[in-house]
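Here is one chain, start to finish.
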Amino acid sequence: MKLDFALFAMGAALSLTTAAFAAGGSTGHAFYGDPPDDRHAWCIHDQNRPQPKVVAPLPVSELEQKAKAPADAIVLFGGTEACLSKWCSDKNPNEPTKWIVRNGNMECVPKSGYVRTKEEFGDCQLHVEWAAPTPPEGESQGRGNSGIFLLGVEIQVLDNYQNKTYADGYACSMYGVNPPLANALRPPGEFQYIDITFHKPVYKDDKCVQPGWVTVYCNGILVQDRTQIEGPTGHRARAKVGPLPDKGPLKLQDHGNPVRFRNIWYRPLPPAAAKGGVRGPLSAKATAAKRKEIAASIRKDAACKPEGSAEQMLRFAESLVYDKDDATFQKVEQMAGQYAAALKQLPADKAGSKKDEVMQVDSAFKYLAKWSFVPENFGPKVEVTNFIKAQGWDKKPKKK
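Its structure:
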């Protein structure tokens, strides 16, 4: 009898485990996702991974003002039927989406397929607001499920308000990669304010020269802190390390739940140095080229200033900081010599009116000498300094 009962208990437990495996489990379970490897301590969708802590979201009143699209933002959905013209079926981009607009929200029609923007972009600041269906139905991954996809990387959409699931599948997780730092969701039916900063990785000659990162705020709470992008994300499978497309559409997932979206906008971000831009440290070659470009721009501006003026002289001198061109140095030296000579001829009763300008010239010459753009004994510098001393402008006023 004892043996029979033990065998029965084992069979029942195995049946429950098999059922949980088929359903995807409530908070994850063993033998489900890719196993750990030499860079990842947890399985994909690991039941042993710590659950995100619950943190109260910021008040809606604080979030609404920040959620307004900035002047340079590109609005992808603003609440009208006309906005759907910016979206299409992901399966067949030539077909309009079957998602609907209801009460100013874009709502997923279950089994209609993913929706995507016609516009494509890469690095961006993205704002999305979504609300899970109410009353809530289902549990774990079956409750208010959708997803925000950028170049194949999913930021999870899920109703996790008092609803547990595997940690790397929570709302605002980088799905299957990294759980959110906190569960800051409002109840189902209320809108969640999601802000994403997305930087794709940079590859050259099949080597990653700059990692990609995702930062996410949920209802004002930081939930992904520069989480590294390894590659496109997936269900039960580890992200495959590799490059992402340069640009792509924003996709929203149809997971069988009528999740609602509103106020979707993005701002394209200027490229970083590794992507041909100027954000961040540049290579020596790129730095030299950019410095010459800056110097040329300053000299062009200097040529438009009043001929022979202190303003023109200082502008030409400023260009030496970026590119010490011999011809420009000689021009500055000549103009500075003429300026110093003019100071000597200045009537005593006119000196006071020139004080601010002379002090500015003196400061510029001292800077140029400090960084060896002109010699320390640069004649005009010495003469301007002596002029200032003669006027008593170098003396600090006595404290009363």
